[in-house]
Automatic annotation (TrEMBL):
Native source organism of the sequence: Castor canadensis
First-tier enzyme category under EC: oxidoreductase
Binding site for heme: C434
Protein name (database record): unspecific monooxygenase
GO annotation, biological process: organic acid metabolic process; xenobiotic metabolic process
Entry EC no(s): 1.14.14.1
Native organism taxonomy: Eukaryota, Metazoa, Chordata, Craniata, Vertebrata
Gene name per UniProt: LOC109702608
Amino acid sequence: MDTVSLLLLGLACLLLSFWRQTSGREKLPPGPTPLPIIGNILQIDVKDISKSLTNLSKLYGPVFTLYFGMKPTVVLHGYEAVKEALIDHGEEFSGRGNFSVSERTAKGLGIVFSNGNKWKEMRRFSLMTLRNFGMGKRSIEDRVQEEARCLVEELKKTNGSPCDPTPVLGCAPCNVICSIIFKNRFDYKDKDFLNLMEKLNENIKILSSPWTQIYNTFPALIHCLPGSHNTLTKNIAYIKSYVLEKVEEHKKLLDVNNPQDFIDCFLIKMEQERHNEQSIFTDENLVTTILDLFGAGTETTSTTLRYALLLLMKHPHVTAKIQEEIDHVVGKQRSPSMQDRSHMPYTDAVLHEIQRYINLLPTNLPHSVTCDTKFRNYLIPKGTIILTSLTSVLNDNKEFPNPDMFDPGHFLDESGNFKKSDYFMPFSSGKRICVGEGLARMELFLFLTTILQNFNLKSLVDPKNLNTNPVANGMVSLPPQYQLYFIPV
């Protein structure tokens, strides 16, 4: 084929792709004109997508369309649009949008990246099992309190020397999940446990990198280019292998009349459905579901805890008021309990403000519509990816005056009582709300109050000079690395 023919063929392909992009646009919400193949990627800062979405919403309104590559994505910006979709039209917007990097390993299984009846059944089973093992009840609170005490003992071993809190703050919530899934917790120095934590931590960094946003936009690149996404795949393969070993151990010791943990319950369900060829209860789905529970129940909580300590060092007057409330309500002789929270409005407000301020999941995980959906006079075709800007909800300046400032007053009324807000959506909202929300909120309260009951936090630099801006703002907002002193009270 000669050069002219090649050029004409290339031009024809470009025109075809452009026609495909524009043919259905008239019914979709407005948005910037996409370029052939690459869409609107040049108009988006992949290092801070949420900021780009805010700027575009000023031009196109709270509901607009972007093209990440050749596929349209409908963006919902602001509380009203997000609430209308995820709550008022929850069923239609309950699909999980494609997340190419994770799809390579999840393969539509588990809870986070599954869809349809597969997702509904697995979510229902997981919630029921977690509740049976105490989530939201006193029994799980006992586990978290025990882990909080272990965390304090581990921090005492620093002997007031400067330390990076990342490893130990990762181990604590991970051990709570391990006690539910594997029955047993691990010693903080266990090599396998630390290796598992290292892989999980590295994966969150990779998923929050600009390169991951590029790969998700152009999934074909995943198969032909080197990059950190390959490290992600290897890490997940390692974790899957580790989990599979535990599953095989459980199979040998299984007592169907006395299940000890999540794995036992899943294996019993597998046995009950062994004659059902369409059953979703398989070894592969068990492993993927456990990975989802680890990801949702470990890294998000540990990242929030790391960010929390950084903010508390940055604002020592806030820390002092929390410790004053702890002294008044809890004292020194017993561990904090969930019953204390209702008597500690300032501490509760600080915890809410930490989650609001750090904006852990700026654009949420992608949703999709489960059917052709009419939304605000637009027609969104079935399967269209939906991006919900949680940043725009958590930073709403009418609900939270001066949203760029860290201010516990955002959640306090004039009398100093805790004030709820419908705009508080760090765990998303609607049918895809985080399965472990209740556990995460319990851990944040009990871990932080137990730490502050036993230690003063001391920064290595003047608190005014501490940087609290995220170092990554992709899928997850990650705090900068830092060290601090844990000074026993």
